[in-house]
Design a protein that fits this description.
Layout (H helix, E strand, L loop, with lengths): L1 H18 L5 E10 L3 H8 L5 H5 L3 E5 L8 E4 L3 E9 L2 E5 L7 E9 L5 E10 L8 H24 L2
Antiparallel strand pairs: 1-7, 2-3, 3-4, 4-5, 5-6, 6-7
Length: about 160
């Protein structure tokens, strides 16, 4: 009986190991200098649905409290993201429903009393992206978030 249970456990483990796939993680980190103090920049950029303005689309909080752990936003009526971490000058979000595992972080770093730095980090697993299109996919994401950074910079530095 013990041998049968052992063999069954081994077969189950082998089955799970065969089903697992190796991840292929990619990081895109973009930074831009801001000519305003960190607190000023964060006050203008901390809204979890501010991304709607940055991407020129819709965004609504569908669950939780804006800016707090567990808050869920829906972007363009189809992309749901949840805040999974936060600090006084940052938040990190993830999309639990997509085939691409990803996390993004919006962060303001103090540089001096009158300046700060905006850092946008995107981390994702590109395993489900066809290998032939991975570089183009990364370039597209880099360009899109580069454009977002410029919009954010304009908002943060506006008088």
């Amino acid at each position: 009986m013990k041998t049968t249970a052992f063999l069954a456990a081994c077969a189950a483990a082998a089955s799970l190991a065969g089903a697992a796939r190796a991840a292929d993680y990619v990081s895109i980190v973009q930074e831009t200098d801001l000519a305003v103090p960190a607190a000023t920049a964060w006050d203008k950029l901390k809204g979890y649905c501010d991304i709607g303005k940055w991407l020129n689309t819709t965004c609504e909080i569908t669950s939780g409290t804006d800016g707090e752990l567990g808050a869920v936003r829906k972007i363009a009526g189809r992309i749901e993201e949840v805040i999974v971490a936060r600090t006084p000058l940052s938040y990190t979000y993830a999309d639990p429903n997509q085939p691409i595992l990803y996390h993004g972080t919006v962060e303001i770093r103090p540089v001096s009393d009158k300046a700060s730095k905006l850092v946008y980090s995107l981390f994702y697993d590109q395993t489900t992206i066809p290998e032939a299109t991975r570089e183009a996919n990364k370039a597209g994401r880099t360009k899109m978030f580069g454009n977002v950074m410029q919009v954010m910079k304009g908002i943060a530095e506006a008088k």
